[in-house]
Write the structure tokens for this entry.
Amino acid sequence: MPKTTTRRSTPKRPPARARNGVLKTVLPNGLTVVLKENHNAPVATFWVWYRVGSGRERTGITGISHWVEHMLFKGTQKYPGRSADQIISREGGQWNGFTWLDFTTYFETLPAEKIELGLSLEADRMVNAPFRPRDVSSERTVIISEKQGGENSPRQLLGEEVQSAAFRAHGYGHETIGHLCDLQSMTRDDLYTHYRTYYAPNNAVAVAVGAFKAAEMLKQIEKSFGKIKRGPAIAPAVVIEPEQRGERRVTVEGPGTTSYIELAYHAPAAKDPDFPACVAMDAILAGASSLSIFGGGTTNASSRLYKALVETELATDVGGSLIPTADPYLYGLSATVRQGHTPQEVEAAFDAEIDRMVNEPVQTAELAKALKQARASFAYGSESVTNQGFWYGWSEVFADYHWFETYLDRLAAVTVEDVQRVAQKYLRRGNRTVGTYLPK
């Protein structure tokens, strides 16, 4: 009988899908690509998101994602030293990188005809960062200095203690910069192994927004990234934080003359149906805050807590924080205690307003005003091409880009009943950690 051979077939890329002006596809090497044309200005932004942040770190290597992010600005053979920074500046562009709980990301925003430079830079440092020992050593000094500098801030010290007390199992319990002991002991091999494990196409999302043709941009991305090999398979994160069974309290003492207080409640993940109602609740309590790292929050002078704490001169400021995350995180409330008053007085004022939110339905007009502020804040924080690139990528990390595109519709659907329901569900004493900073 004639001998037959079996030919291995090359994995086929799923067809690119365009929906509401967004093209999304996955390359054969696993790289997710999201493209959005925006011809309002002759600029474009390119982002690469890696699905790794401090939330995936364990004791011993806390802060490693942030450190690796720093190392990718140390140059490669193709772009040595600070040459990439100089090239970007010469073309009138900007670039940066960030690390947080669920991600590490890098971006370039340039004149549209120069955006291929961003693709070249990111494809190169996805595989060619050398992690030279001298660079590891110098960056260790930089990051430890950054860590110690943050410890001069009472609010940062308090926030770190509250975050740590709020989580017993999940990696969300430590700051992105990591613990000092880990920063002192991690090796070059630790960093390089982390890089080679997580900085791979199958763990990444490439996002471009701006003045280009999506089909042409996809070809450019395939040319730059298509030949990069897949990395190792990464097991999904499965850590589930146990339910908190009672209020936790921490006290931090340190230099200064001012006291601070922070309340942190366990809150739903971004994909949870309760999240939009929690945003509305936060807008009523503390004022609409931006969900983006680029800011965009409005004044909170009309919020309940501002009136109860600042206008009564118990506190000099008050604020809230609710951030979209892949896993359940925290809803935070904080205030600076005014001289002549005590943290106990401020906490009592917090509790009175929180109890009112739990026990009494909000007025329809108050909800409408809060939703209007929240929509305005979100719109402002997603206005520019760079901000849109941020949101299309970030939402792909914790959900998918449809989360971003449908967010305002889900926010508009929040009712008075929804707000009271989530207040009763999450603003329980047994679901919170209370932190106080006392000056010595």
In short: The CA atoms of residues 314 and 338 lie 6 Å apart. The two ends are 91 Å apart (CA to CA).
